Amino acid sequence: MCGIIGYVGPRLAVPILLEGLKAQEYRGYDSAGIAVLENDMIRLIRAQGKISALEERIGGEVGTATVGIGHTRWATHGRPSDINSHPHLDCKSEIAMVHNGIIENYQELRDWLIERGHVFASQTDTETLPHLVEHYYNGDLLAAMMQTVARLEGSYATVALCKHDPRRLVAARRDNPLIIGIGEGEYFFASDMAALIQYTRNMLVLQNGDIALIDEEKGVSVYNDGKPVTRETIYIDWDKDAAQKGGYEHFMLKEIHEQPWALGQTLRGRIAADERDIELKELDFSTEYLRSINNIAIVACGTAYHAGLVGKKAMESMLRIPVEVDIASEFQYRDPIIDRHTLAIIISQSGETMDTLLALRECRKRGAKIVAICNVLDSTISREADYVLYTWAGPEIAVASTKAYITQLMVLYMLTFYLARRMGMKSGDELQPLISQLYRLPEKVGQVLDSCETEIEQAAQQLKDWSDVFFIGRGYDYSVALEGALKLKEISYIHAEAYAAGELKHGTIALIEPGIPVIALATQPAMHPRMVSNIVELKARDAHVIGLSFGGCQDVMEVCDQTLVLPDIDPLLSPMLSVVPLQLLAYYAAVARGCEVDQPRNLAKSVTVL
Ligand code: F6R
């Protein structure tokens, strides 16, 4: 939700903190700040607005500090303002802290601290942290942090800088990510590995309940439950440009274009040489366990939920097992039928979404085995699951998810085929044509990008001034329509709705007026006659219908005003192609409307609060 950065080492801290914040701006962008230790004093600079506003306020005065912390905020408690920006200070301005998460008992703590004479400057929950550390500080920052977190309820990743401990930083985490980067004689904290990749590839992921001390001379020490613990350093082999725009105007466009590559990464090493089986070495299900599965529960939020809807259809058709898909935030309200005979599939790009994490824990409590589909390595969800299938899409920086979605679909199809073979539902011969198409999918997505981008850019011009756009489809197409509508509304702010095409005449068709854009997905030949009827109904009310179909589908093309043509593929796999034009349409509509594509208003990349 927010982005944290910290540095201690021989280099000037301010430029490193600013770079680290820029690399994490997608996590929150309504205010930002830094605190560095300079001339035995904490220098605090904060600004409401984007990091550029903070940079302006710093005005090139990088100073001489070589230790500091920084934060980019997505407001929860206290509206965006200079005062509510992090870092926050204690009463004496000797301790500065940044925080990602929510301190649920902050009001009680605040009252308790006020009773003891502490004076608060902001309306944030975070400000209780430096005051608590101040209360407990007795010359040992680590001990004060341990006592502080023992008082906290809620979630946090937090880093503290103290004037009396000038070459050290202390941090703690619970249910919010925090990474330590280990360089040559220098150390970093960040919320996201992508922010550190330009400085070091050696990273240590803090785990829940960890408290870490970075001492410039002695290195990193981690404690959990008051005792020292060992945390493995992992080597991140991403391309150093992975978190850069690479010549594209926006991360979103770069990530859309990275999809063929990302799909290739997801597939790598997972397809048997004869293309008759999927090899998921991460899973070690016994035949007995597979026989015991009665149902599958997929839980996720937003775009990942939309991927789950496609997964449900593929799994039910191939495995003949009931599959339920839940929005993670709704999951707890319906007493789901989940027990040890349930296979739970938890999908999350970030692996940190709080609603999804809580749903995972609920599934575990009820006895389900848990497979996570995640993109971010070593994230909380990937750690807490029994098995992780990584999507390997590389860092996704744009707030609007694109390459994560397509690779989540790929993993879901692979998992479906893997299970179908092992549950005896499909033979290698039956799967081979599908697996062979999976293998060639990166190339096909490349063809979609090459063939329709210009046409979509023009189509986006036509819909940019409309306040409503509709997406319709049946079966798989309906699931993808939901994702297309979400993409359009979140980045272009055009109101967009997806409807099961057959539902239109049960109410929504009343909204159709002359010229209104409707995107009609028609990639399921078996459903074409009905889709054609739906499109004709829309045309009778003068809607402007943009179809999305395959080359040979004359029936669809004849009734649409314009048709975007996809390369041929088995209809089962069509979501991985049909989503691409919809991503581009949303992107170009947002650009045409002058929207901030990578940082849409009110949103942040990873939602680590409830
Ligand atoms: C939309 C989008 C969000 C996320 C959702 C879940 O473009 O990105 O809807 O899909 O917040 O995030 P993860 O997958 O990180 O759990």
Lateral arrangement of strands in the main beta sheet: 3-2-4-1-10-9-11-15
What is the assigned CATH homologous superfamily of the largest domain? Aminohydrolase, N-terminal nucleophile (Ntn) domain
Radius of gyration: 25 Å
From the N-terminal CA to the C-terminal CA, the straight-line distance is 11 Å
The pLDDT mean sits at: 94
Shape: globular
| Cofactors, ions, other ligands | fructose -6-phosphate
The CATH top-level class label of the largest domain: Alpha Beta
DSSP helical segment count: 19
**SSE class:** alpha/beta
Q: Biggest sheet, open or closed, and with what strands and sense?
A: 8 strands, antiparallel
Structure summary, number of beta strands: 25
Regions with little confidence, pLDDT below 50 for 5+ residues = none
Oligomeric state of the chains present here: single chain
Strand content: 15-25%
Name a few traits of the molecule.
eight-stranded antiparallel beta sheet; seven-stranded antiparallel beta sheet; Glutamine Phosphoribosylpyrophosphate, subunit 1, domain 1; binds fructose -6-phosphate; Rossmann fold; alpha/beta
